[in-house]
Amino acid sequence: MADRPWSTFARDRAELDRQYEAPAYREASGLAYDDLEKGALALAAGLAGEPHPVVKARAFAYILENARLAVNPHDWFGFHFDVVKVVGKADIGWHVRMILGRLSGKWINELCQGPVQPYVSERARQGRDDGLFVMYPDYAHSSPNWDDLLALGLPGLLARARHFRREQTALTPAQAAFYDGIEISYEAMIGFAERLSAEVSLHAAGSAKMQRLADALRRLAVAAPASTYEALVLAMFYWKLQENVEMARVRTLGDMGVLYNGFFQRDMASGVATREQIKELFKYFLNHFAAMHVVYQQPMYFGSMDAAGNVQITELSRLIFDAYDECGLYDPKLQVCIAEATPDAFIKRVLEAIRGGNSSISLINSENAIASLLKCGMSLEDARTFVMTGCWDYAIRNEAKTIPLRLNLPKVVELTLNNGVDPLTGHRLGPATGEAESLVSFEAFYAAFKKQLADITQYMMAIANCFEPYLHEFNPTSLYSATIAESLLRGVDAYAFGAKVCSTVFNVSCLATTVDSLAAVKKYVYDRGDISLPALAAALRQDWQGAEELRERIRADRDKYGSGSALADELMVDLTDYTTSLINNQPNGRGGFYKQGQISIDFNVKFGAKTGATPDGRRCGEPHSKNLSATVGMDRQGLTGLINSVTKMDMSNFNHAGMLDFIMHPSAVQGDEGLDIMLALVRTYFRKGGHSIQGNVFDARLLRDAQAHPDRYATLQVRVCGWNVYFVNLSRKEQDLFIAQAEHLEKMGAH
C-alpha cells in the first residue's frame, strides 16, 4: 500500500462527516428503501408457516440482492447501501427504521397473543406508563466473537457452520432451521461483498482508494482478511449488516489494539504499510461511527487481559488512541480497562485526553470485573478474558446478554409511603404493606420498603421470564450466532440457549435519591419526631406545600449519600446487599441467570418525571440521582469523600455495571501535577474496589456561556450517561443540571 495516496484525512474530513446524511445512491443499482421494504415483507409474507430463521434469512438475502448502493470515493471504507430510514432526529442522534424491524414487530405481536400471553405486554406497558419500571425484548447488547470473524472471514464462518451441522447426529426441525438461516445469510453476505466490489469498481479508474477497496471486498468474498486494511473492511461490512439489517446491535468493536495487532505487525514487518498509514486508516474507520449520528453511540475498548492475566496494551493500542484523540471523536465511545499492571504512562495519556475535553472515555476496573464474574460462577480464564459491551458493562466471551429491566428505585419509597398505591395515578403498583400510620418504627417502615422491593423485583423477573425464551423467535440472529462456536455446536440461536452463557441484566436505578430518602425518613420521622409518617406522606403528595421549612432542613442535612454519613453509608450498604440477594444468579428464562446493574443511564430524568416528591427534599417530577453518583449538590465532601463513601459497597456485586460520574474544575488538573492528581484518584478508587468512573472537566462559567451563546460552542461535549452529546443539544433542564453540578463544585472550593 506504500504507493497509495495518503495523508488525505484532514482534506476529506468535511465530506466524511456528512456522508451518511444523503448518500448518492445510484438509482439503477437497486430498489429505494420503501420499495425494498415492501418487497422484503411481501417475500416474508409468502413464506408464512416456514421457520422464522429461514423466513428472516430469505428476507435478509432479498435485501442484500436488491438494495440501492452508493460509493464515497473520498473514503477507504466508502460503501453504502440503502437499508436504513431516518424517521426522526433526537438531540443525541438519529432515530432510524430498519426493514426487518417490521418483521420482528409482527412476530412479537403474534407471539404476545399466543404463548407469551397478552397480560405480559400489558403489565410491561403499565409499568412503563406509571414510571415504576421499563422492560422490553433487548437485542441491543450483542458482542460478536470478533476474533473468530477476523480469523476465519465470511467463507470460514460459513464452512464452520456447515461442519457443525454435519456433526449433528440427528437434527431437530428447529436445529435444521437454525443452520439453514446461517447458510442462507452467509451465502447472501458473500454474494453481497462481490456485488459491492463491482459497484466500487465503477469508481476505481484513477482512484487508488477505490481500487484497493474493490480488491478488498472481492477478496473477502473468498478468503479471510490478510492485512489490517482488509480486516477493517470486513469489520465495517459485518458491522453494518448485523447492526442495520439483522437488528442485533453490535455493542462493541472489541479491544482494537489486540484484535488487529497481528495484522498490524505483519504489515509493518513486510513493508505493506507504514505506522502513519495504518494510523490514517483507523481515522477513516473510526470517523464513520461519528458520521452516522446513531443514538447511544458505538463502544470500543483497550486494555483487555489474556488468559494468564497479562494486560494487553500494544503499540497499536497507543496508535489507535492517538488517532482517536486527534480526530476529536466522541463516537465511538471508548472504555479503557485498568488493572494494577496497566502502565501509568498509558493511563496518563488517556487522562490527558479527558482533561482536554474528550469525555467520551470511561475507565473500568479490571480486577473488579474479574471478581464480579467469578461470583457469577465463571472460570478464572473466562473472567480474565472478559469483553466490554455497551456503555460500561462486561461479559465473558461468547455470552449472549440482554438488558431488558430497569427499576425506578425511588418509586418504591413512594409506594411504601402509600401502601403500594401510586399517588400520581391512583394505580396499585405494589403489595399492600400497611398504611403510613401503621408503620410505627423505622424497622417496620424499612421492612415494608423491602417487601415492596422484593415483590416488584420478582414480578419484573417473572414477566421477563415469560418473553425471554422467545427472543430467538422474535428476532433470529443468524449473523451473530454464526460467530459463537457454542451456538453452532448446540445448533441453537445465541439468544435462545446457544451461547456459552445467556444472561439477563436487571438495572436498579437512582440509588442516591433512594438512600437519602430512607435516611430522611429515619432521622426526621422516627429518630427526631419532627413529623409523623402520615404527615410526611401527605406533604409529599402536595409536593412539599406547607412543609417548606422541613424540606429546606432536610436538604441542608449532611446525612447524605456520598458525604461520609454513617447513617447514609449504612443504609447504602444494606440496600445494595439486599438487591444483590434478590437479583444476582437468579434463573432467567433462557437457561442462564440474572445480573445486577446499579446504573440509571438517562432514566434518572425519565423516572424522575413520573415520581412524586420524595423524602430527601426532591420535588415532584425533578430528576433523580444518576448512576452511583450523589444527588447534585449533596456530596459535600468533594470527590474524595464521595469515593470513600461509595466504596463501602461491594461493587463486585454489580456484575453488570456501576458507574461513578464526576466533574473536575480545569484549574484542579493543570500541568503534570494535575495529571498526577487524576491518576492518583483513579488508582485509589479502583484499589478501594470501585467499579468504573467517567467524568467531565469544565467550569460553570463555560457552561453558562455555552447556554447563552450556543452558536459559539457547537462542539462542546459533555458526558451524559454512557454516551456523549454536544452540550448545546441538551434540553434547558439537562443543561441546568450540569451547571448546578459545576456551581456546587466551585462552592466547595474544589478548584
Could you explain the architecture of this structure?
This protein is of the alpha/beta class. It has a domain at about 1-115 and about 145-250. About 50% of the residues lie in helices and about 10% in strands. It is built from 31 helices and 17 strands. The strands form 6 sheets. A 5-stranded mixed β-sheet has the order 6-7-8-15-14. Strands 5-11-12-13 form a 4-stranded mixed β-sheet. The protein has a two-stranded antiparallel ribbon with strand order 1-2. Helix 3 packs parallel to helix 7 (about 175-200) and helix 23 (about 510-525) packs across helix 26 (about 565-585). It is globular and about 80 Å long. The chain starts with 8 loop residues before the first helix and ends with a helix. The model has no long low-confidence stretch (mean pLDDT about 90).
Task: Give the C-alpha Rg.
Answer: 26 Å
Q: Label the structural class.
A: alpha/beta
For the secondary structure, the number of strands is: 17
Q: Categorize the overall geometry.
A: globular
Contiguous low-pLDDT stretches (5 residues minimum) are none
Sheet-strand content, in percent, reads: 5-15%
Count of DSSP-assigned helices: 31
Q: Name the average pLDDT.
A: 92
For the sheet with most strands, the description reads: 5 strands, mixed
Q: Portion of residues in helices?
A: 40-55%
Strand numbers in spatial order across the main sheet: 6-7-8-15-14
Indicate the multimeric state.
single chain
* Amino-to-carboxy terminus distance: 50 Å
